[in-house]
């Protein structure tokens, strides 16, 4: 049984490394940044801009002291798109930049306009995968989300994770992809209010 805690701002730098490792073989992350050294160089900063605000809002869920992490952004809190854009511009190969812009544009079009709980990042350190940590993180977060009553949204960048999200009431609302990118699956969970 996993122990779930809430990540504090002081934990952020350490826990972002769990996410970097957890996404090291992610289809979309590595399509965007295929060179290993490039991926490792600034991915912690990118993830900090993408989901790091969860540490400031008490919505970064942590399993077993950092074996796995989920950064949920509460309604009204958004990723830092400016920082993300700068890093992706540096890390995306030149021949993929137009497609990356298209992918981000599609993500923006699918993202709900109403206030939702948003899950930018959930991952386990590969040394701890297969222990049910993702399920434990989702259970803890869904309890908080259901108490709030509003919908939740995510984009699954790995098709293997879709069954986990479906078990928690998320349904696919489309498909995000470009000519060469892997599929990104936007998923929405209705509110309970």
UniProtKB/TrEMBL annotation:
Coiled-coil positions: none
Source taxonomy: Bacteria, Pseudomonadati, Pseudomonadota, Alphaproteobacteria, Sphingomonadales
Entry-linked Gene3D superfamilies: 3.40.630.30
Matching SUPFAM superfamilies: Acyl-CoA N-acyltransferases (Nat)
Protein name in UniProt: N-acetyltransferase domain-containing protein
Annotated N-acetyltransferase domain residues: 26-192
GO molecular-function term, one example from the UniProt record: acyltransferase activity, transferring groups other than amino-acyl groups
Domain of life: Bacteria
Organism of provenance: Sphingopyxis macrogoltabida (Sphingomonas macrogoltabidus)
UniProt xrefs under Pfam families: Acetyltransf_1 (PF00583)
CDD domains reported in the protein's UniProt record: NAT_SF
InterPro entries xref list: Acyl_CoA_acyltransferase (IPR016181), GNAT_dom (IPR000182), Trichothecene_AcTrans (IPR052523)
